[in-house]
Amino acid sequence: MLLGAVVFLTSLGVVNGQMGVPSDLPWPLTTLIAALAGVAALYARRAWWPLAVVGAVAYVALAMWPPLLVASYLAGTTLRERRTVAACAGGAVAVVGLSTWVSGWLGGERELMTGTFANAALMGVAVVGLPLVLGLWVRARREVLAAARDRADRLEREQVMRAEQARAQERARIAREMHDVVAHRVSLMVMHAGALEVGTSDQRTAEAAALIGDIGREALTNLRDVLGVLRAPAQAVPRGPQPTLADLDELLDRSRALGITLTRHDEGEARAVGLTAERTAYRVVQEALTNVHKHAGETAADVAVRFLPSSLEVVVSNQPPVRQAAPLPESGWGLVGLRERVELVGGTLHAAPRPDGGFELRARIPA
Which top-rank group of organisms is this from (predicted)? Predict the structure, then answer.
């Protein structure tokens, strides 16, 4: 729209003598010619040749140069083959030559402006040559920038592919290590627990061995799910339902069977708080009891689940150990990962020793 208006106004000024040789034609006709040039310029980005035809005729007949100037620039930005560029340049030379002959035949101001060789050459360079060269430069620059963008995109895609390949290799290596080391050791633990359960005559020992075997088999099941995720990250791995507060009593019973005296307190009116909050609360209790087993051995602990108006609070606190168990190896990332899990859902986690020598872990989870 803007290009058409500019061509119309400048053409009207040229044909009426403000920026060129005044025409003897009546103003309605000159306005119509300028409007025709403006309409051709309006659609010139779709097809530039109609504007070039209008510009050539108007330049030869009236020395009206704006349409030819714009058409020359658009031709430079569009033409790609050397033959078409050469043909366009040859046509422009022919138009300028014909305009020079017409100007010499008409005489007067028209001959002074475009009829002499020097003025005709100057007008030809200014109206056709420079716009055509500028259009060719703009097209070449666009192609260079497009090639640079394509190259950058290709390099980025290759970098992403290399990173994905390295990540997949690392995941496969971790999966192999977990399978060869952890799964093997847990399997041996389950086998020994089964042998102990069958071979012992003590009922309490047999029950403890059966519990250890069940826990080991569950650990192998969970480990198999983790290995499936590591080996095939792009595929959906079938997994069982994640534990929630409904499974909390089973978790507490297992800890009781291992020698911990546990008491559960539910405070507030129980209500549905969302699966994410319940799963997070379950993992908080699970990690807290794991730490009790590691650091306190056989002791007493309290598990409090509080239903607050806008949150779910879980507090696990244990007494000082009665008899210190053999120390277990520490990963060093249990509380760190748990804090990240709680903060990921917008909650807070606080873990600190108690004045009496025990330990307390408190988590508040938005519900």
Answer: Bacteria
Contact 342, 365 (CB under 8 A): yes
Structure tokens at 201: 């005559």
| Backbone φ and ψ of 330, nearest 5° | -105, 140
Cross-strand partners of 266: 305
Q: Is the per-residue pLDDT at 328 higher than 50?
A: no
CA distance 173 to 232: 13
Q: Where exactly are the structural domains of the chain?
A: 2-146, 245-366
27-42 vs 2-15: helix axis angle to the nearest 10?
150
- For the domain bounded by 245-366, which CATH number is listed? 3.30.565.10
Contacts of range 22-29, beta carbons closer than 8 Å, 24 or more positions apart: 22/109, 23/62, 25/62
Tokens of 275: 């699966």
The token pair that represents 105 in the structure block: 């035949």
Grade residue 239 by pLDDT with cuts at 50, 70 and 90: low
* Residue pLDDT, tens place only, 172-229: 777 777 766 677 677 778 778 888 888 888 888 888 888 888 888 888 777 777 777 7
Cβ atoms within 10 Å, residue 288 = 26
> What end-to-end distance do the CA atoms of the chain give, in Å?
57
Cα(99)–Cα(107) distance, integer angstroms? 12
3-state helix, strand, coil in the chain (%, to 5): 65, 10, 20
pLDDT confidence bin for 108, thresholds 50/70/90: low
